[in-house]
Amino acid sequence: MSNPVTGLPVNGTDYTSNLVFGTAGAAFTAPDEYVVYKGSSNTFTVTNLQPNTTYHFAVFEFNGSAATTEYLMIPLTGSRSTAVTPATQVSNLTFSQVAGSSVRLNFTVGSGEGRLVLIRKGAPVNAVPTDLTTYTSSGDFGSGAAINGDNYVIYAGNSNTAIASLLEPATTYHFAVFERSGTSFPVYKSPGATGSITTNAGPTTPTASFSFSSIEGDRINVTVSKGNGLRRLIIAKKGGPVTSLPQNNQTYAANSIFGSGSEMATGEFVVFNNTTNSLTLTNLEPNSVYHFRSIEYDKDGEGNIYYLNTPRDNSSNTAATPLPPNDLSIINVTGNSLTLRYNAGTGSYRFVVGREAAAVNVQPQDLVKYNGNPAFGNGTNMGDGNFVLTGGANGTSINISNLRPGVTYHFAVFEYSGVNYPVYSTTSGNISITMPAEPTVAANNFSVNTVQGSSFRSNWTNGDGSRRLVVARKGSAVTALPVDGITYTANVNFGNGTALAPDQFVVFDGTNTTVTMENLEISTTYHIAVFEYNQTAAGPDYLTGSFLAGSGTTASAPTQQVSSITSTSIQLNTASFTYTPGNGDGQLFVIKQGSPVDAEPVDLVNYGINSIFGNALLANGNYLVHRGTTGSQFTIHGLQPGTTYYLAAFDFNGTSSPVYARPGVSISFTTAGVAPTPEPTVAAGNASISNQDGNTFRLNWEKRKRHRPPCCSKYRHTARFCSS
Fold it and tell me: Alpha-carbon distance 700 to 719, whole Å?
C-alpha cells in the first residue's frame, strides 16, 4: 500500500482477519485495506507482501465482541517497506589458494545483508536466483541447490569469501555472486558479479604428517593430516623405506590387508586410496618395522589422475616381544587366598597363569587374548590345568582366591605388548607356594556394638584362615575347643547351635568379620571365642593353639530416669514439653486422658509411636506419643480442650529390643478452653405414628436418659409432618 490507512472500524462489527495480506473476506472499510490481525497479542507476521514496497498500518484498540464491540477510533499508525533490492552489487572478485580440487573466492561486499554464490563448470553462469526464494548451499561442488540445470549454490551467507571444493583438476569454473536483502524471503540484485578460474593440474600441498595408534602385534592404526589433494595414496613396506612413486593417470588398487594391494615395487604395497585420512592396516608381523609413504592426488571427470610427487614418509613398529616380569613374591597368605607381587617387565600389561600341584607348562599364543579370573579355576583353561588368572593387568600385583589349603600352587607371569592382539614375552617370571593346612594367625581386635536387651554384635579382624568358627558361652569364658575334621552347625540364636561342651554353643561359621547373637538374656554377659580354620580335604583344620577371646553384655535398664518434664505451651488441642533425659539410649512417653497412666512398656518390645493422641495404643487407654533418642522436646496433637491428661516417661537402653526403667516419671496437665459437652449415650426409643391424614401424620417417641429423675420415668415428645 502506498498510502496511509484511511478507513475506520465500525462499532458492533466483528471483522475477519488473515495474516495473508489481501485475502478475500478480510477487507476493511476502505479500498485496498485489509484486516491482518485481531487478538490480544502485541506481535504478528504478515505474509504475501511485495518486495520493494511500502506498507502502512493502523492499530485499533477494542473491547467486547460481535455486536458489543467498541473500538477506539484513534489508531496507532506507522509504515514499513519490505526488503529492497540492494543498490550496490558485489565487486572485486579474486581467487586464492587455487589447488587441483579447491579454490577460495574473495570479493568486496555490496550494500545488502548477505550474498549468494553460484558456480558452473566449463561455461559462464547462466542462472539468477529467484526473489523470495532461499537456497541450500554446499561448498562441495554439485551438492548445493541447482539452478537452471548445472549452476550450483556453493555459498549463502554474509561473509566476503567462499570456498569451492570437490573440483576437478585443470578445469575451468565460472562464478557469479549476487548481493541480497532479507533472509527468509530475500531480494537479489542482478546481474551478479562474475569471474572464472582454472584449477591447478593436481594438488600443491603434500600430506602434512603421520600419526600411529592402537599398535598391536599384527595391526596398526595409521592417520595422516591431509594436504590439499582431494585424495591420497598410501604405500607401505616392511623393513625399509618406501622408494616407489605413482605415475600420473595410473590407478592403483588399495587393500588395508598388507600384501593384498597393488605392489608398486618389491614389497611395496598400496594400502590406502581414498578421500579420507585414516586406516587400520592388518596382516602385519610382530616385532617388525613398517614404513609408509603418502602422496596427494586429484582426478578429473575424464579419469585423468594428477599425483603430487612430493611424498610424506614415516614409519612405525608393531608390538614387540617384551622382557618378562621379575622379583616375584607372595604375601597376605590365608587358607585359600594370597597376593602375588612382581616388578613389571617392558610390556604394556601382565598375563598370569596358575596351576595346581605342578609347574605351569604352557606358553600364551601371540595375537590371542585370553579371559582371566583371579578366582583360581574360573578363568580360561589353557590345557592341562593351566588357568588364566588375569588376561591383562597393568598393575604389579594380583589377589588370587579359591585356593585349597595344603595344596601347592605354581604361578607364571608373562609380559605382553599390544592390547587386543598381544605379543607375549617368551619367558615368564615363576613362583610357587604350598598353602597352609592350618591357619597360623588368630583373629584379633575384638569389639562389641549394637547392644540390645536380647542381642549384641561382635566384631573382629580376621586372621589368616579361610573361615572362622565362633563359640559363645553365658557367664564364663569359653573353654571348649573345636576338633579337626569335624564340621559344626552354627546358629545365631544362642543355644540352638552345636554345643561343644555344656552351655558352649557355636553361633557362627563363615568368612565374615561380625556376628549378631540373638536370644540372649537381659543384663547378661556372654563370652566369645573366634577360631580360625581352613577347609581341607580331610575336613576343617582349626587353629586352637591361639584364638581370639572377648565378651559382651546385653543392655540393662537405665539407672537414671527422665526428669524435669516441663510444659512449654498448652493450647486447646496441643501440648508441648521439654525434659531432661536420663542415662539411657532413649525415652518413651505414654499419655492417658482423665486418669493416671496405668500401663508400662514391656522389655524387648520396640513400640510404634504417634504424636496424635489416640493413634498408638499401649493398653487400657494409654497411648504412645513420643520416643526420644537425640532431642529433649516434643509436641502432642489431637487433644480435647479443657481436659486433664496424665503423662509418663520411661528411659530405656537399646533400640530394636530395648530394656525400660520402671516405674516411669509422671506429670499431669489440662488443656486450654472449656471441655466439650459430652455426647448422649442412650438413643430415643418407642417411636409411634398417630393422627394420619391425607397429607399429615404425627410422630411420637420417648427421650431416654441414663439417669432418670426420681419424679417420673419417661418424657414424651411429638412431631407433626405435613406435605403440600
Answer: 6
As a whole number of angstroms, the distance between CA 672 and CA 675 comes to 9
Query: What span, in angstroms and rounded, lies between the C-alpha atoms of 285 and 392?
Result: 21
- Nearest CA among 646, 625, 645 for reference residue 634: 625
Q: For the purposes of burial, counting CB atoms within 10 Å of the CB of 505, is it exposed (0-12), middle (13-18) or buried (19 or more)?
A: buried
Average pLDDT score, the chain: 92
Residue range 147-158, pLDDT digits in tens? 999 999 999 999
Q: How confident is the model at residue 677 (pLDDT cuts 50, 70, 90)?
A: low
CA distance 259 to 243: 16
Q: Rounded to whole angstroms, how far apart are CA atoms 587 and 608? A: 13
One-letter amino acid identity for 601?
P
DSSP 599: -
Cis peptide before 241 (omega within 30 of 0): no
Cell of 430: 615363576
Please determine, for residue 712, whether its predicted confidence score (pLDDT) is greater than 60: no
Query: Which pLDDT band holds residue 559 (cuts at 50, 70, 90)?
Result: very high
- The amino acid at residue 402 is N
Residue 700: the pLDDT is 56
DSSP-derived secondary structure letter, 674 = P
Spatial separation of the C-alpha atoms in residues 442 and 491, rounded to whole Å: 22
Starting at the earlier edge strand, list the strands of the sheet with 91-96: 91-96, 103-108, 161-164
Q: Which of 199, 176, 1, 215 is nearest to 91 (CA)?
A: 176
CA distance 364 to 426: 9
DSSP notation for 505-530: EEEEEES-SEEEEBSPPTT-EEEEEE
Cβ distance 625 to 645 under 8 Å? Answer: no
Going across the sheet that includes 685-690, the strands are 685-690, 696-703, 715-722
> pLDDT-derived band of residue 724, with 50, 70 and 90 as boundaries?
very low
29-71 tens-digit pLDDT = 999 989 999 999 999 899 998 889 999 999 999 999 999 999 9
Q: Label residue 674 by pLDDT band (50, 70, 90).
A: confident
Specify whether the CB–CB gap between 458 and 446 falls below 8 A.
yes
Angle (nearest 5°) at CA 402 between 396 and 406: 100
Q: 648 near 656, Cβ under 8 Å? A: no
281: phi > 0 → left, psi -120 to 50 → alpha, else beta; which?
A: beta
Terminal-to-terminal C-alpha distance of the chain: 76
DSSP state, 204? S
ω into 191 cis (within 30 of 0): yes
How far apart are alpha carbons 540 and 71 in whole angstroms? 102
Virtual torsion, Cα 175, 181, 183, 186, nearest 10 deg: -70
Residue recorded with cell 498510502: 3
CB 364 within 8 A of CB 418: no
Gap between the Cα atoms of 551 and 381, Å rounded = 47
Q: Above 70 in pLDDT, residue 707?
A: no
Instruction: Dump pLDDT digits (tens) for 306-331.
Output: 999 999 999 999 999 999 999 999 99
- 652, 585 contact by CB (below 8 A): yes
Does residue 563 register a pLDDT over 90? yes
